[in-house]
Amino acid sequence: MSTNIGKGHLPVLLREVLGLFGPSEGKTILDATFGGGGHTRALLDSGSTVSVVAIDCDPEAAERARAVSDSFPDRFRFYDLNFSDLDLIEEDKLDGVLFDYGVSSFHFDQPERGFSFRADAPADMRLNPRVGQTAAEFLETASREELIEAIKVFGEETSWRRIVDAILDARGTDLLHNTRSLAALISNTIPAPVRRRSKLNPATKTFQGVRIAVNRELEVIETALPKAFDLLAPDGVLAAISFHSLEDRIVKRYFRKLCGQPIDRMDSTPQQMRPVAARALTRKPITATPEEIAQNPRSRSAKLRAVRKLIGLT
Question: Which of 136, 187, 199, 240 could form a cystine bridge with 123, CB 3.0-4.6 A?
Fold first, then answer.
């Protein structure tokens, strides 16, 4: 089974994903976050009559998809789309849809994409570099409220006040335009005792929050999940792998709604007014084994949830 697609790329929770969708003979699965193609290849390898439709808005993912198409010309189709637009694909009545959120190792391994501060590069961070603002443009023009949302809420950074003030003060100085200077600005803003308490680079959470804001990552998840469920055939499986608590919260709430359960502790909707459209396949999120974490540290924060569409729904 081909699971390592390119340098540094290991598909997360692969065995568990295959277990949710298998046996796969004759099925058509949508990989809504193609990335490095690891899940796609493994699904295609799982049966000689399995078909996979894949989506990704990254032009470099499209290049990687050509290699998969060459290996499986009759069973693979790729769409150059953001997964929030997955309703534009021609296929429907799918047997499964898989989301693998977050940023792939390819993005971090390419300094010029601006996702990492390990090397100096323009602060870009766009998953699709053909559209939208770069991270530098966002930092130069966002309102204070938008910066607070990115750094405090999306990045979950406790020193957000200092960092927001530093970013506003640095506008027009070029300090926000490159990854190294941006990371240094953030690091110098955080008090030394706070820096020493964490094993993470001081810029990690801010970079995460800015990336989420630039790519509207939470918004597109909320948009795409209902569209994906609508594309499922009865008895089809919808699965999502999250790496961030805010991503997982969106998935958890939507899946609970599909299953006719309260979406949170504040939901007091009477049971008779809760339509049931799906059955939960994961009572709690599936997480990586110690063996997988040792092989692929990125899997440490992965959470996999899944539901099955009830028969009788169209």
Answer: 136
Given the DSSP bridges, would you call strands 28-31 and 232-242 parallel, antiparallel or unpaired? unpaired
pTM of the model: 0.91
Q: How confident is the model at residue 92 (pLDDT cuts 50, 70, 90)?
A: very high
3-state secondary structure of 164: helix
| Whether residue 314 has pLDDT greater than 70 | no
Q: For residues 199 and 194, give the distance between their C-alpha atoms in angstroms, rounded to a whole number.
A: 10
Identical fold between 14-106+217-309 and 108-215? no
Quick one: which of 82, 37, 93 has its CA closest to 63?
Answer: 37
- Domain boundaries, given as residue ranges, for the chain: 14-106+217-309, 108-215
| Structure-block tokens of residue 68 | 């998969």
Pairing state of beta strands 232-242 and 94-100? parallel
